[in-house]
Design brief:
Number of helices: 14
Order of helices and strands: EEHHHHHHHHEHEHEEEEHHHEH
Number of strands: 9
Mean pLDDT: 83
Low-confidence stretches: 1-28
Largest sheet: 3 strands, antiparallel
Distance between the termini: 7 Å
Length: about 375
């Protein structure tokens, strides 16, 4: 699923105008007013098959879906050319049917976000199928089932980066805060919810496998934080400072290893992510960032190669990280819930689509990702 950024390109003899906050290409000719007409005509065709008493409610819910969709389109500055695509209109009909029987506002929001995702014309066929099936089953999901899909989507698709902060505390605070926004109710118990998700094609269950402990999983993901680093005053430390000076970065790039007293490390969450480097200056609380060039990156890699590799030290670091991880209420709750589960499950393209759109609803501003 590509990012929802809109790029407008004009072909020969095209006339592109900016109407409000919606890009309209006259080669397509789909305005907001025309999109509303198309959407309403689809609603009208459905009314004949409904009892008179149900028509007002169904119509109101479908129109609410359109209003939600249009507000998202405007916010993301997408065009409305999809309303001229028969394949997209087929998805609109499915979403309308689901909206008509939806009793929760969250379902309407989910359906609108799924239609937004479907507007991308470059999706793989499997992803399109997943989105279409996700629309069909959205009203059938219990709130805690959707929550589980969202947890698993975040768990498998979003990995930490150096923006998570330069300390273990920053990193765990950010992680705990994300899961707090997702876990808004009690986690489900038993297996009935998992059976339901299996019936709905949202997950695949593997009974012979199990989940990696959550602290271990995120410890490996944050291998720039969960490391031994360099013992202060050691020859490796001296060599690292020399390397940093030679590449024009300086010893201030090294920070105390908050998991191992007497050691320092580079301020990286992921040891292979050199997109930018947080820098602290003594006596100044603000954290600055720099984008390393090729010479800097070469030096950083050399410094990382000097890190301690003693197994006792590494086990000490992992144990300290696990201890601090469990001090965060939401992280511990999720860790214990996964540890108590028998078996393992993964999301299908259907489950991924539902988990993704709900994650973006729970965490505004969450970066867009590609779904398989």
């Amino acid at each position: 699923m590509d990012k929802f950024a809109q790029t407008q390109k004009g072909g020969d003899n095209s006339n592109q105008i900016l109407a409000g906050t919606i890009f309209v290409n006259n080669n397509i000719g789909i305005t907001e007013e025309r999109a509303r007409e198309i959407f309403s005509s689809e609603i009208a065709q459905k009314m004949d098959v409904l009892a008179v008493e149900a028509r007002d409610t169904a119509s109101a819910r479908m129109l609410e879906l359109f209003s939600d969709l249009i507000s998202r389109v405007k916010k993301c500055e997408k065009d409305l050319s999809s309303f001229g695509d028969p394949a997209f209109l087929q998805n609109v009909r499915i979403a309308q049917d689901a909206a008509a029987v939806s009793e929760r506002k969250e379902d309407i929001e989910t359906l609108a976000e799924l239609l937004m995702a479907r507007m991308n014309g470059k999706l793989k066929r499997a992803t399109k199928t997943g989105i279409r099936r996700a629309m069909e089953i959205a009203p059938e999901l219990e709130a805690d089932e959707l929550m589980v899909l969202t947890i698993m989507l975040f768990y498998t698709k979003y990995t930490p980066n150096n923006k998570s902060g330069i300390s273990v505390e920053h990193y765990l605070n950010a992680l705990d805060d994300y899961f707090k926004k997702i876990i808004q109710a009690d986690l489900p118990i038993g297996n009935r919810w998992l059976q339901h998700l299996t019936i709905l094609d949202a997950v695949i269950v593997e009974h012979l496998s199990s989940f990696v402990p959550l602290d271990e999983y995120y410890g490996k993901s944050a291998n720039g934080l969960v490391c031994a680093g360099l013992r202060v005053g050691s020859q490796e430390h001296v060599n690292a400072v020399e390397i940093l000076n030679q590449c024009g970065m300086g010893a201030e790039c090294l920070v105390p290893n908050d998991l191992l007293p007497g050691f320092v490390r580079l301020p990286l969450v992921k040891s292979d992510d050199f997109s930018f480097l947080p820098i602290t200056i003594p006596n100044i609380p603000k954290i600055y960032t720099m984008r390393p060039n090729e010479k800097h990156i070469e030096g950083l890699k050399k410094v990382i190669s000097l890190y301690g590799k003693d197994s006792k030290l590494l086990n000490q670091v992992k144990a300290e990280f696990a201890k601090r991880f469990s001090q965060y209420g939401t992280l511990k709750k999720l860790k214990d819930w996964l540890a108590n589960r028998k078996g393992w499950f993964e999301l299908t393209s259907v489950g991924e689509a539902l988990g993704y759109v709900n994650a973006r609803r729970c965490i505004p501003g969450l970066p867009a990702i590609e779904l398989e």
